[in-house]
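call fold(seq) -> tokens
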Amino acid sequence: MSIFTAEGDSEKIFSAAIQPELAACWSKILTTGLSAETKETLIKKYLPPENCQELQPPLINPEVKRASPVNAVRRDERIARLQQQVRAATSAISLLIAEMLKKEGGANREYIESLNDIGRLLCDVHHNETVSHRELICLNLNKDFKETLKDVSHWKIAFWKRFRLYIENSKRT
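ret:
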């Protein structure tokens, strides 16, 4: 690449080619998507590990859902569906890493490292979608509700069993 390039001019750089069958399969999915049935099958096949429950997509608390407009709830449902797919992909990777460590004692360290990198990137996508989830929901809530939610972790917002009590207590303080 020349050192004299205009802004925005960049050379595309790709890694080595992958197996043609894999490239064809992934290219089709990238252009047409997976069928709803295939997505559902894969999501059910790869459940989150019991010691990593944060992979579950956060759900809107019923009180927050009632206080939110329909379009915000629909957006949130789309984010949750994406997070279910990310959860399944991350869970599949975790199973593969666990099996590789058991069977090979970590001999294929570079493969395990690459799989872990994939898992880390997927976890970051999940985190970013959780942040979007909270921000999109908070856009439509009244000021008191927003103030109450801003300092609560994403995980607690999603699954807090006594959310109403939390809201009431925060108003008293």
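The helical segments are 20-32, 36-45, 62-67, 70-104, 109-139, 143-150, 154-159, 163-172.
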